[in-house]
RNA sequence: GGGUGAUUAGCUCAGUGGUAGAGCGCUUCGUUCACAUCGAAGAUGUCGGGAGUUCGAAUCUCUCAUCACCCA
């Protein structure tokens, strides 16, 4: 049955993918040669609630190319798939879903029930991306699919937390953190986005106490005094007036003469009447505003530092939802005027931060301590998920002491143990790691790995000390934590309660009982000690930081881990270099003391064809599944591969994809041509390299070897675009444009041996095209592989070739074919420019020609006649009147077409060519006549230049002769 | 403010010291027996400006301009 006219991607792709799966073609180690080296790639785990977007499609295509390439080379290959539980994002999605379907909310449901809902949701709509990946053709080992919340991985994460805790790399502390008031959780620095907003700078007057004053001076740009007055207040400026309730100081620069005598004095905080000191700190910038800044240590990172240096109190004045917390807030009340306090509590307690801001500004205006308002454009930190302004917030959180684990991660890149490409990524990596901050890893969420820490009452001198807070016991399981507690308390009579509050209530009651007995608590005492588990979960990136070892079954001893770790290449977006790559580096070294991978390939964001970030708002999102449906997965993959220049911007355009779909059709039709010429009759897919006689066949074998080397070199260097363009150029520009055309006369001849040889060679060449193209375009190549021979293996496991140009290029055939192709192009060019009708066969005159040319012509006459559409060749001394001249290497031909050729046009054509030639020749001669060039340039460059100049000179002579003849005629 | 990168044909981009390229688009011609999702031919560049290093610079250095992204 003859082949279809085009490849039917929609029909073939699912069928072929199913065949691969049925054959377990992607299983770890499939097609591995005995004792082969390993190759392992970890899929950056997509969000479990996610779907395949253009960025995934790109990222996954590159990995699939590498993986398929290694697998075909017989390496022991594993592409490890899996999904990330994506804590905050997933919790958000499920909460929205509950609200949308009018179900009870998270808090109403309670932790356990809510988590059931999350799991339900995950089962229902999670993992959609897996199905989509299959449509893309991704060859992951699905049998090993991992999930960050699954049992074994979960246990590994907990185990690492415990290890790092025991090693002192993790600690808990009351710190200022980035607080997301929407989700009511801490987030890390990296999850904060700076957003430029048009806002205001409010100037507030704080009254100096004890009758102090100072000289306030204003100057213009030239330093001339414009204002001088004596003031009994200090003006501070702020973009967040509501934080003034937590002010505990005013800072001025130590060198600021205006305020020197005020340092140590106090001001009275408006509204609350708190007396706060004026302190010296170089954080205050004398050139900005009035040079005095209010200090709110509990609500600003800079102020926190100032507060530490000046020993100022930190007063938290907000609730977790960023409403004001004033009532029942002892720290706030301390030092306040009782009446003022009552008023401000009445006015602002529980009020949202922005409403409080307005109310405070209004009060300041009414009471006369508003100095003024300036418009001000400034950056406001926002939560990257919630999009609300974050608050610096003072809470107890868990931190990774990054300073302790950053060293090996830095060293690994510095000494080349792990390479980041493109290299610019390394600079960015150093810059971040060299200035790394502690990493806040606790999140006040429910969906995630719950921190494996239990708290029990603290003992002082063997007695329970209710004032000493709670003691942490870190262990992988509750049983192990209990064992630790048993050691600490001397008994295991413990009662697990839900939270700290309940534990405190029970403890106070218990101590009451114990105290009644007039003794410290003893093991025999009747009341169990209340203990509770830390309610927080770990940052999602903490778990994904363990992705390499966790997916390989660590810490259980197992073959996969032994074999594939450290893994080989990480392919990921440069936007998560810090979030993920740097943390994996730090954590793998911290936990198992080895690098996670030897190469990190970073790529940019996939953008639309104009280079604009895709976003729902702009409506320029390109859905890869839609593209696959329209053009086929292979076309999308080839487009992805072709745009993957190192460090380049990734612009995805439908026109390009369409072009690569056409490329697939071109390949398909080359096979159709071969089939029609009996190339595949009785084929068994022998991999034997042919040793043909005909020049054309010898030549194409050499060309194939060249492209094999190019593709391997490109992939070796992660230059995906080079691999794509080498293959595109070879398949279309060499095989289709030339080899198939040149083979036509051979197939049409009576020479049975030549026909057989050409069939054999073409079958081999086309097989090589399939093999070399397969990593990029797996579907169409697999289909053609199956249709054109009876094979013992699918293409996915075909043997990748290793022949070299050195072995297979026949220099003679190479030179001869280049001459023939040049000759044909020269004739076509003249025909085209002289407007010789395309279908018209014309006579050719051979004027002068050297031996090499004569040989090449004679040996390929039928090809030349056919492809240049020549009907006869005659040798002649000179060209007749009205002939067009065709200079070739080593000689001159002419087309005697007096009635077609316009002498004027031919003259113009020759002159134009001569002019171009003259320019080139000028450059070449200029270089050669420069003694310094001949002296200092490499021998081969000089020789090349000489040769080129000789050729161009010869051509110039021929063109000039032709022009002279024309002049005689005209 | 700091960092990183970009600027090459009408468009989108390759090209890291040795004859300026590809794809798309454009113009002309073409139903030659694989393919019109095609073929043949053609036009289009002071490689952002300036300076320097070099026998030689799109490529290396400096500087200026414009733009993008990341971090404050």
UniProtKB/TrEMBL annotation:
GO cellular component term of the entry, any: cytosol
Catalytic activity line of the entry: tRNA(Val) + L-valine + ATP = L-valyl-tRNA(Val) + AMP + diphosphate
Keywords attached to this entry: Aminoacyl-tRNA synthetase, ATP-binding, Coiled coil, Cytoplasm, Ligase, Nucleotide-binding, Protein biosynthesis
Location of the Valyl-tRNA synthetase tRNA-binding arm domain: 902-967
Coiled-coil region list: 900-969
Subcellular location: Cytoplasm
Residues the entry annotates as binding ATP: 616
Primary location: cytoplasm
Its EC number(s): 6.1.1.9
Pfam family, one: Anticodon_1
Gene Ontology MF, one: valine-tRNA ligase activity
Sequence ranges assigned to domain Aminoacyl-tRNA synthetase class Ia in this UniProt record: 16-648
Enzyme class: ligase
Domain of life: Bacteria
Residues in Methionyl/Valyl/Leucyl/Isoleucyl-tRNA synthetase anticodon-binding domain copies: 697-842
Record family assignment: Belongs to the class-I aminoacyl-tRNA synthetase family. ValS type 1 subfamily.
HAMAP family, per the entry: Val_tRNA_synth_type1 (MF_02004)
Chain's role: Catalyzes the attachment of valine to tRNA(Val). As ValRS can inadvertently accommodate and process structurally similar amino acids such as threonine, to avoid such errors, it has a 'posttransfer' editing activity that hydrolyzes mischarged Thr-tRNA(Val) in a tRNA-dependent manner.
Record comment regarding domains: ValRS has two distinct active sites: one for aminoacylation and one for editing. The misactivated threonine is translocated from the active site to the editing site. The C-terminal coiled-coil domain is crucial for aminoacylation activity.
Subunit architecture: Monomer.
Protein name: Valine--tRNA ligase
